[in-house]
Design goal:
This protein has 14 helices and 17 strands. By secondary structure, it is an alpha/beta fold. It binds pyridoxal-5'-phosphate.
């Protein structure tokens, strides 16, 4: 009965409902999901990139229960709750230097919307107002969420193109891609090449640009596309030089995923605005944060009558239950030394990828910390993709599910992104299921 209602009533995200097969998870423990019949599946993609310390972690479970005994909801419209304040303090202490203020919302898309609107309003209200700075610069294949503002800066043609008439204008640059580079560009010259394009655009358009929006180091939903090393660093320098704000969307790569708490740390970068969601609550509850510099904050201060206020809010923004889960998540990073323990797992992922990359239909393997994308191609030499309609990535995952491993691909790219807490033994099982799946799906 539940399965037929699931098919008929529940409109699943990013899912063709005409062919949807119900797949209901009854419970989970650590890195294992259990379906209604009690079959076990290793969670190879962290409940869609958000679980950090495993499911049913006792410390997070207890924090949420404790919070329930106090209060579940307090608005942030002119009030607050101590746990939300504590979370803000922890985030500011951990974040790259200069990010000193926190605006809470409830999803990654909202965190990006907030950053876009803050940047826009900043230029109208800063010391030397530049009201012509109303546009954004974003990258091809970017993914920043599914609301119309975040879709405007997004660039995944298959998801976003249809909505073009509804979107605001965005200047766009090619994806800084290390696998598919333009003719004449090598791995060695890629950073310089892509930064030159940035500089040309900033030179020409900085007077009308409010901000550049980027997923630092790796564009995840694009298919785990890895940027050339030094690109983020160079982008930060150029945005400073041309006085354009830098928005770092770390919704996917933040919260330890890259091997550091924030991906920006890898290139010693402090953005003007930093967006966090997904792993912020350990994957437990909807909560997001947009961190901003003091320079931005100052531009919004004034008398009540000046209307410099940021007129924006989400009912559940910074909600105490989510904040309690987030504080507990950050405490576990310390208590369990999550990032130190992650390093051997990152090394193990690299070993698995070296072996998997030898397969004749694996065109490219890409790794950022504990995220991997394995791109399947029809022809390795020409990098000719498999037609997307052949669903090669899904076929790999279909095999994995038969082996008790749950994965979700991005087109022809197989994704490995388990909770940071996974054991080496469980992790090996995921990687072996992927390897076998690739054999099966490309045979
Ligand atoms: C998932 C994601 C988002 C959107 O987050 P939601 O919580 O799903 O709205 C935004 N940016 C990036 C980089 C993401 O991966």
């Amino acid at each position: 009965q539940l399965e037929s209602w699931d098919r008929e009533l529940v409109w699943h995200a990013f899912t063709q409902m005409a062919e949807h097969q119900p797949f209901l998870i009854a419970r989970a423990e650590g890195c294992t999901l259990y379906d209604l019949e009690g079959r076990a599946y290793l969670d190879g993609v962290s409940s869609l990139w958000c679980n950090v310390h495993g499911h049913r972690h006792p410390h997070i479970d207890a924090a949420i229960r404790r919070q329930l005994d106090d209060v579940a909801h307090v608005t942030l419209l002119g009030m607050g709750h101590p746990i939300t304040v504590q979370l803000a303090k922890k985030l500011v202490d951990l974040a790259p230097a200069g990010l000193a203020r926190v605006f809470f919302s409830d999803s990654g898309a909202s965190a990006v919307e907030v950053a876009l609107k803050l940047a826009f309003q900043f230029w109208r209200q800063c010391e030397n107002p530049q009201p012509a700075k109303t546009k954004y610069l974003a990258f091809d294949n970017a993914y920043h969420g599914d609301t119309l503002g975040s879709v405007s800066v997004g660039g995944v043609a298959r998801f976003h193109e249809m909505f073009q008439p509804l979107l605001f204008e965005v200047l766009r640059l090619p994806t800084p891609n290390l696998y598919r580079m333009p003719n004449g560009v090598s791995r060695e010259s890629a950073t310089e090449h892509y930064l030159q394009l940035v500089e040309q655009t900033l030179q020409q358009h900085h007077n009308e640009l409010a901000a550049v929006v980027i997923e630092p180091l790796m564009q995840c939903a694009a298919g785990m596309i890895l940027h050339p090393p030094g690109f983020l660093r160079g982008l930060r320098e150029l945005t400073k030089k041309y006085d354009v704000l830098l928005i770092a969307d770390e919704v996917a790569v933040g919260m330890g995923r890259s091997g550091r708490m924030f991906a920006c740390e890898q290139e010693n970068v402090s953005p003007d605005l930093l967006c966090l969601a997904k792993g912020l609550t350990g994957g437990y509850l909807p909560l997001a944060a947009t961190l901003a510099t003091d320079r931005i904050w100052q531009a919004f201060l004034g008398t009540y009558e000046s209307s410099r206020t940021f007129f924006h809010g989400h009912t559940y923004g910074g909600n105490p239950l989510g904040a309690a889960a987030a504080v507990a998540t950050l405490e576990i990073f310390e208590q369990e030394q999550t990032l130190a323990k992650l390093q051997p797992k990152i090394a193990r992922l690299q070993e698995h990828l070296v072996r998997i990359s030898a397969h004749p239909h694996v065109g490219n393997v890409r790794q950022l910390g504990f995220i991997a994308g394995i791109e399947l191609v029809r022809d390795r030499a020409t990098k000719e993709p498999f037609p997307w309609t052949e669903r090669r990535g899904q076929r790999v995952c279909d095999h994995a599910i038969s082996q008790g491993v749950w994965l979700r691909p991005l087109g022809n790219v197989v994704v490995i992104m388990p909770p940071l807490s996974i054991s080496l033994e469980e992790f090996d099982r995921i990687c072996l299921a992927v390897e076998e799946g690739i054999e099966t799906a490309t045979a």
